[in-house]
Design a protein that fits this description.
The complex is a heterotrimer of chains A (95), B (111) and C (119). With 95 residues, chain A is an alpha/beta fold. In chain A, 25% of the residues lie in helices and 21% in strands. Chain A has 3 helices and 5 strands, in the order βαββαβαβ. In chain A, 39% of the residues are buried. Chain B has helices at 27-36, 43-59, 65-76, 83-89, 94-102, and strands at 4-6, 9-11. Classes of the chains: A alpha/beta (95), B mainly alpha (111), C alpha/beta (119).
């Protein structure tokens, strides 16, 4: 199962959209850096996450003042590293 | 690396001895570049140099060892499409030394 | 056992450096006998169309990609949906010496690799 890492805002980049197109059942998504904007409560991007395991780096969300919706799991760096060991391969969507 | 001087004309080289301006290449330049590598060019060298240049025209890049061997094999037959054959012509690194003498840029993927 | 590597190429050829960097990474890996698989998807499929970049002072990336079979990368994988979205006929991106394989399910395809390099 693949771990997808998205680091760009869904409003300025196709990174998240491209990721979602190839994200299958059982895959997981980690939102980092500007990727965390997709997790904002009330964001219209949230509907695309239905049925998917989505995580978001807490420090990046807090830094940007993003109020993360309840269906996205806020994690710290240690959990992120753990996820990277649980999934294979890892795909970065950074542009 | 010192620049080349051919028939009173100064040909600029980079620090590894590759031509700075690919348009400077002539057979005389090749002979001089080969000499600085300790190589006297023979017919066997020239046919490989021509292939290096046609590889560059076709793909716009200089070949690494493996594609050079394959390309030579396709055009000159399996006897010459061998790394040992090319190694004898252009020691110690045929892709790099051959590219230099053929007036191509240094292969970017040549470590 | 050696790990399987996929280069995921999803950028158009000249707007930024990633497309060229991806190709160079693939060529370097292939030269070191670590031949990766290559998947073009998204705007990456634009790397494969006929192009004439001389006027903008760039080297022809498609021409460079044509060297892949010489480096041991004989099959190019291409996302069919990305072609369709952009109105590109698969026939128009055929490369001499390379086998084109259209990928229907990129999810399953990507899942088959140990490592994915994104470009």
């Amino acid at each position: 199962m693949t771990l997808h890492i998205v680091s760009k805002s869904p409003y300025s980049s196709s990174a998240l959209a491209d990721c979602l197109r190839t994200c299958g059942n059982g895959d997981a998504i980690v939102l980092i850096e500007d990727g965390v904007y997709a997790a904002q409560t009330g964001s219209e991007k949230l509907q695309d996450f239905a049925g998917k395991a989505v995580f978001c780096l807490r420090a990046d969300a807090e830094a940007r003042g993003v109020a993360v919706t309840a269906t996205v799991d806020e994690i710290d760096e240690a959990r992120w590293v753990a996820l990277c060991t649980e999934y294979r391969p890892i795909v970065s969507w950074f542009k | 690396m010192k620049n080349l001087e051919i028939a009173g004309r100064e040909i600029p080289l980079d620090k590894e001895g590759f031509l700075r301006n690919l348009a400077d290449w002539t057979p005389d330049v090749a002979t001089a570049l080969a000499r600085s590598e300790g190589i006297e060019l023979t017919e066997a060298h020239w046919e490989v140099l021509q292939l290096l240049q046609s590889f560059y025209r076709e793909f716009e890049l200089s070949p690494a060892m493996r594609p050079l061997v394959k390309y030579v094999g396709q055009h000159l037959g399996p006897d010459k499409g061998k790394s040992i054959y090319l190694m004898q012509l252009f020691p110690p690194s045929p892709a790099k030394v051959g590219s230099k003498i053929a007036g191509l840029p240094k292969p970017t993927n040549c470590l | 056992m050696s790990k399987s590597i996929l280069a995921l190429c999803r950028q158009a050829p000249y707007g930024n450096a990633l497309a060229r960097e991806g190709l160079e990474a693939v060529l370097a890996a292939a030269a070191m006998d670590q031949t990766p698989a290559v998947l073009f998807c998204g705007d990456g499929v634009f790397q494969l169309v006929q192009q004439s970049p001389e006027g903008i002072g760039e080297k022809n990336l498609r021409r460079n990609i044509q060297a892949l079979p010489m480096f041991g990368v004989e099959t190019l994988h291409i996302c069919r949906a990305s072609l369709q979205q952009r109105g590109i006929d698969p026939v128009a991106i055929e490369l001499p010496g390379a086998e084109i394989q259209l990928v229907e399910n990129t999810t399953a395809f990507i899942d088959g690799f140990d490592h994915v390099l994104s470009f």
